[in-house]
From TrEMBL:
It comes from Rhodoplanes roseus. This is Pyridoxamine 5-phosphate oxidase. PANTHER family: FAD-BINDING, PUTATIVE (AFU_ORTHOLOGUE AFUA_6G07600)-RELATED. Residues 49-140 form the Pyridoxamine 5'-phosphate oxidase N-terminal domain. Keywords: Coiled coil.
Amino acid sequence: MSRRYLEIASTPSVTAAQAHYGSAAQWTRLGERRRADEGPRQDSLGEVEREFIAERDGFYLASVSETGWPYVQFRGGPPGFLRPVGDATLGFADFRGNRQYITTGNVTANDRVSLFLMDYAHRRRLKIFGRMRIVDPDSDPALGPLLAVPDYPGRIERFVLITVEAFDWNCPQHITPRFSEAELQAVLAPVRDEMEVLRRENERLRRALQSRDQSDDEHGASSA
């Protein structure tokens, strides 16, 4: 777990739970190593994170209501619809949906959000803590070219910007591999090619057998 992510996640109640279940020493040592680390605090997106985000066609977005209840929704679109617009900022075009506006309402009172970006096929998961704000398209026309999704059949109602506070790559141990249609197409392409070769070979052999049978029939008739 990265230093900044650990700082945010390690609340007193979390620390108490770690002590209760016997992992406090482990996380204390990790925290000490992270605090001694002079490297980046993991609140700016690197090239690996940017490439990973650009390949995703969806993510899970969590917010918290004024009454303390968490709300999680799935946001989907063409690969890359969620995109970096700065070293520590992500943005996406918010298309009209069921018009509940639960996340939209939640972040007006508490802008803290959490994102889970999943790559099920390769069992990779990127977690992000951030602060989210809603931007009216008319108030910032410059965001249109940055976040628009050409040829996508959806009506843009607003733009969303998320300032990244921290991110962390998660353990793949319990991620069940799943594959999208596009990923399956790539995996199955060699199998389809081999099946096509076999189909053609089968057709060739069938024609050859028919030709031989026809020749035998003609030879038999001629002998008679």
